[in-house]
Amino acid sequence: MNANVMNKIKLTVLLLITALPVSLATLSFKSAIENGDVSATSNKGNLILPPADITALAMHHADGQPVFLNFEEEIASLGDEEYEIRPWLLLYVTGSECDAKCQERIHYMQQLHIALGKNIQRVRRYYLHASDEPIGPENAQIFESQFPSMGIAYSEREVLELNMASAGVELSLASQSYIVLVDPVGNVMMYYTDEQTAEDIMADLETLLKYSSLG
């Protein structure tokens, strides 16, 4: 059996095993909703069932290269390398320049990330700029000086909205921004509007990290 086939088998088995705790965490939220449980185990964000794949967000670097690959591309890119599970992702998604409200929201994301303590390495933050206009120099300076650990990625607003609509999620990036939660195997599983607080996001994230050993 050649190395390429072995890698495919290893990755398939690994993903089948690691997907289970994430699925259990998601199902715990679903069960809480169906049972009318308003305890700390019920989700504060908007649950996406079934989850969308991370490639639906069409995230790419400034040079146009994709930030994340789909399942088949991930397998093809392995070679002799071992598959590494991603951290949980918190994405701030906006279709316009990052104004004062956006910067405040990103600051809250930074603070709740720090508040995770020992779990801080299990989560990574991204700013997803889904606009035809480039990030302005003032915003670029703010990200560099105030949020240096936050990744920056880009997307096309229409493509992102269409992909998410296909997954049953209607986003209006022309007028609203969102915080999106992605699990370690690339499932876009929850999103938050501006009406939901940093405390809401923290409650969900702590529950998911408790139920899942991934990331």
Tell me about this structure.
The chain is α/β, with parallel strands linked by helices. The protein has one domain (about 5-210): 3-Layer(aba) Sandwich (Glutaredoxin). The protein has helices at about 5-35, 70-75, 100-115, 135-145, 155-165, 200-210; strands at about 45-55, 90-95, 125-130, 150-155, 180, 185-190. Strands 1-6-5-2-3-4 form a 6-stranded mixed β-sheet, with helices on one face. Strand 3, helix 4 (about 135-145) and strand 4 (about 150-155) form a beta-alpha-beta unit. Helix 3 runs parallel beside helix 6. It starts with a helix and ends with a helix. Mean pLDDT is about 80; it is low at about 15-20 and about 35-40.
Number of domains: 1
Q: What is the CATH third-level topology name? A: Glutaredoxin
CATH class membership:
Alpha Beta
Q: Strand order within the widest sheet?
A: 1-6-5-2-3-4
Mean pLDDT score: 82
Poorly predicted spans: 16-21, 36-41
Helix content: 40-55%
SS-based structural class?
alpha/beta
SSE run? HEHEHEHEHEEH
Give the helix/strand layout.
Blueprint: H1 3-34, E1 46-53, H2 71-77, E2 88-94, H3 100-115, E3 123-129, H4 137-146, E4 151-154, H5 157-166, E5 178-182, E6 187-192, H6 198-211
Parallel strand pairs: 2-3, 3-4
Antiparallel strand pairs: 1-6, 2-5, 5-6
What's this entry about, in short?
With 215 residues, the protein is of the alpha/beta class. The chain has helices spanning 3-34, 71-77, 100-115, 137-146, 157-166, 198-211, and strands at 46-53, 88-94, 123-129, 151-154, 178-182, 187-192.
